[in-house]
Amino acid sequence: MFTLLHIHTTKGSLLDSILTVEEAVKFASENGMKAMALTDHGSMASFVDFVKECNKYNIKSIIGNEIYEVDDMWEKADTKEYTQPRYHLILLARTQEGYKNLIKITSVSRTEGLYKKPRIDIKYIKENGLGRGIICLTACQAGRLSRYLTNGKYDEAEQFVSRLQNTFDYVVCELQSHNTEDQANANKLIYEFSQKHNLPYTITTDAHMLSDSLKDSHAMFVEIGEGREVGESYTDCYLQTEDEIYEKLSDQFSEEVIKKGIEESINIADIVENVDIGLNKGNIMPKINIENGYDSHEDYLRYLVFKTFDEKFGHMSKEDQEIRRQRLETELPVLYVVDYTDYFIMLYMLAKEARKRHIPLGYSRGSGANCLCLFMLNVTQIDSVRWDLDFSRFANLGRKSMADFDWDISKRRRKEMVEISEELFGKENVAPIATFNTLSTKVAIRDIGKVLDEKEDSPYYKQIPYKLRDEVAKMIPTIKTLNDLGEEEEKDVLLKDILNKNEKLKEVHDKFPLWFKYVMDVEGLPKSMGRHAAGTLITPTPVTDYCPLCYDSEKNIMIELEMHNAMDDLGLVKMDYLGLETLDIIDDTLKMAGITWEDVDINHLDLNDKAVFDTVYKNGNTVGIFQMESAEARRMCIEAKADNVEDIIVVNAANRPGTKESFPTYCQNKLHPESVEVLHDDLRELFGKTHFILLYQEQALQLFRHAGFPEDQVDNARRAMGKKIKAVMEGLETDFRKGLTEKGWNNEQLIEIWQLMLKQSEYCFNRGHAVAYGLLSYLTAYLKTHYTIYFMASLLTSKSDKVQKISIVINDCKRLGIKVSQPNVNKSDMKFTALPEKNEILFGLLAVKGLGESIVYKIIENRPYQSMNDFVERVADKTAIITLIKAGAIPTKDKMLLLKKYANSLFEKKDYKPVTTVPSPYSKLIPFGLDVEDYRDGKKVDKDRLLADYNKAKEKIYIEEQSQKYKKHMMEFKEKYAKDEYMWEFDTLSMFLTNDPLKDAYKFTKTDWDMVEDGDKTTLFCVIVDIKRKKDKNGNQFAYLDLYTPFGIIESTIWSSQLKQFSDDVKKGNCLAILGRKREEHFFVEKIKPYNTWLEQMRKKGVAV
């Protein structure tokens, strides 16, 4: 049976293929194929998924790559006269060595050889022995052999194939089953060439889609992704059966020729060995060196764990110490059995080095807090016993997967953790992990609709305007799901999943079926590859022994695989280093306050500080408080009357999809304990910390344990419930009911508790993570309460590049009675500076828009400045000086006057320089009003007097010209730099600091923007700070507005009808009261009133303004 040897898939051939690995392998299986190859463009991004899928169907997987080969991979500059051509070439791994070599070829082409596309040359492959174990096919019409032959370069074709034969194990000429004139011509020439030189040939399909019916969808996908029309270049580029190949080529070749090409595809599959990529071989740990004197890594880990026992628990009672000692003795054997020993030593090494460098680390992330051993190793800062955290949630004898500890690290120093990893385990053994971004349904609706609306040959030309595209996109709901840490993630529901459930969408579909077909064919496909925000791979030998490397968008090395491929499939170890801005805010606060992290050690800090709860949580004053800044979190703190740390931990866990529903019960039970009804008395102990709601995953573990499940099965039972596998669920329910029946539960109670477990299984939160984040939240609240001015200054520094956020923080400073002052070139630091004696925060120079680090350093290094002239002379950066004047950083009572003085200083006034000779001939004097005859005495001309008058005339003209130049200079300067004085402060500081036009509006602003429900109307008090005017297809003007509000910058749209009606009001700098509707964090304008008009109306109604 024919073997597919040339196919492209969505991840490896981004924006070029709409064929998924799953579709391709399923097609091969359904058509009786015993083997198939994967040959993406210059990429091996899909090879792990491909091998897994082939194994599922018992198909031999052939790993390949359609490389871009060039004459010289080191040449990376095009000229007008010459661009080095790229040619396609198919490489297939024949042996295990060939597979390793293919990884190296791919890595080199995507890093050192990268120039627009991943490239490599045959010379490099040959010189480095990378062709061994590899089969080579000559590829498509973009291949060198096809190009040479179709252009009559026969000698070059022979030389090229000779080079291939001297480089690779086996070289095969490639014909393609595409029924186009160009391909037919290429096929004929390549076939004749193979026969003349006794070369094998085979037939491929060069598939980019599942079937021919998808060719228009594929063309649309390429057009919206890359902005290019495909024409006929992808004709017949789909997965073909053997019968279809005979049909496509019947006009080009005899049946015997076709049969031989198909047989060669089978022969290639036969000579390819079964390559082992390392699937399901267990964990591959980096090499861990331990100190001398220990017989095993287990002994060494035990030493490290107990080494800090007295330091951490020496102050406790013997009873509490013994509880923790027993906990450690329980954890260690489990860690040995599940083979986490080296991983824990590795975590210890990383944490030790990070703390040595004073890199701020979070308390814990994920279930790591549930492990007391990690606390002993100083990897976490959470005493698992104190916080009643279940170890089995982190590790148990029934768990087979690798431990997965995530780090929260100072955002500004995250890169140092990667450097530490490289120093400890080898630079070539460390690389970040890739991630893929997909084409969302909303984007597909808008982009495909736009193409169909604008293309003159489209059936829907000028029928799908922006407004319709926008309305349809907004019909697509966004669902919130939880990741492994229980954190919210948003994604669009697929159109294909909801079309038949939504009448409005069905109406649009019936009118524009082709639009929706294209969307459903391409929605959710990968569109770009980027660097994972946190994942970093660490291997025992160079990374390229396991997977290919590539560059990210900034030309930094990363692996070309996703997280699940590298970790779950290949068993490689990764670390998640997540940059957390809160740690930088805390670190800056401590440094300004003159204290250290040890001074606020969470294990010794007073966690019952009434002032913290009264000042921050109870009243919802949570600006800057970790995890509590959203309107929903603030509301929950107020409703719960949060007065203890457990409340904060609960809010952190409950503010998620699903669990929010049970929060009112939590508040009711907490505030009215006398009316609490408990399903069964057993739950009083199990659910006591959450006032009898099921919130944490650990509570589910306790319930299974209470029902008699063995210790090595409790966490697996919890996980199985989340997956809702029917057969497994039935067995679990039987055992669960049996166990609780023996504890005295009746049938009604059993039904109710099981239904509750089912409902919450998807949403229950890991208590360990909630505790760690709740305590970090408490620390920020503690600092805001007791070190307020330092905390707010640090918070402002962290938000200085976020226009939407900085005004919110400054408004909170006003509420706290802290003055935020304009920057000052003689006083301001790079960051915001706290002046506690004045209860004032000085604006940071780096927060001034338009100032870079280098100019700020220069300003600070050269001060103090005695005057404006002194500053100008020593800084001498025109853009910076203008920006600083507008920002108020150069003290003056009149910024406009100072700016004009500076403009004046920029004009170089030049004195007139007299000439020393009279021009010749004398007729040149006439334009200056001079007649030589007036200076003649007889025959002799008085040249001295003539020269003097000539210079007077020239000087007068020169002075007038200088005057005009000066006026032009000042006019141009004013036009470019001195307009809209009322906006200078916002333009440079991202807010109105000294003269807030909305200062009276805050008393009327009762509902926060993020508390306004999607689709609801609300009134915004705002200043228009930016306007982008657009035209729709009918030539009607509409606009996008950036609105400065008490809630930060809000983006809005005003459609053409409203824009016409309120055109006088829609001007930059206008202060307005706008009624509109909120949709997906966007604001749509309906009515506008000038803000002062609105205020006057309020006054007439008797409101004190």
Automatic annotation (TrEMBL):
Phylogenetic placement of the source organism: Bacteria, Bacillati, Bacillota, Clostridia, Lachnospirales
Domain Polymerase/histidinol phosphatase N-terminal: residue ranges: 3-71
By its UniProt entry, which SUPFAM superfamilies does this protein fall under?
PHP domain-like
Question: Carries keyword Transferase?
Answer: yes
User: Which BP terms in the Gene Ontology apply to this protein?
Assistant: DNA replication
**Alphabetized UniProt keyword annotations:** DNA replication, DNA-directed DNA polymerase, Nucleotidyltransferase, Transferase
Presence of the UniProt keyword Transit peptide in the record: no
Q: Which InterPro entries match?
A: DNA_pol3_alpha_NTPase_dom, DNA_pol3_alpha_thumb_dom, DNA_pol3_finger, DnaE2/DnaE/PolC, DNAPol_HHH, PHP_dom, Pol/His_phosphatase_N, Pol/histidinol_Pase-like
A GO term for molecular function: DNA-directed DNA polymerase activity
State what protein this is by name: DNA-directed DNA polymerase
What EC number(s) does the entry state?
2.7.7.7
So what does this thing catalyse?
A: DNA(n) + a 2'-deoxyribonucleoside 5'-triphosphate = DNA(n+1) + diphosphate
Sorted alphabetically, which PANTHER family does this protein's record hold? DNA POLYMERASE III SUBUNIT ALPHA
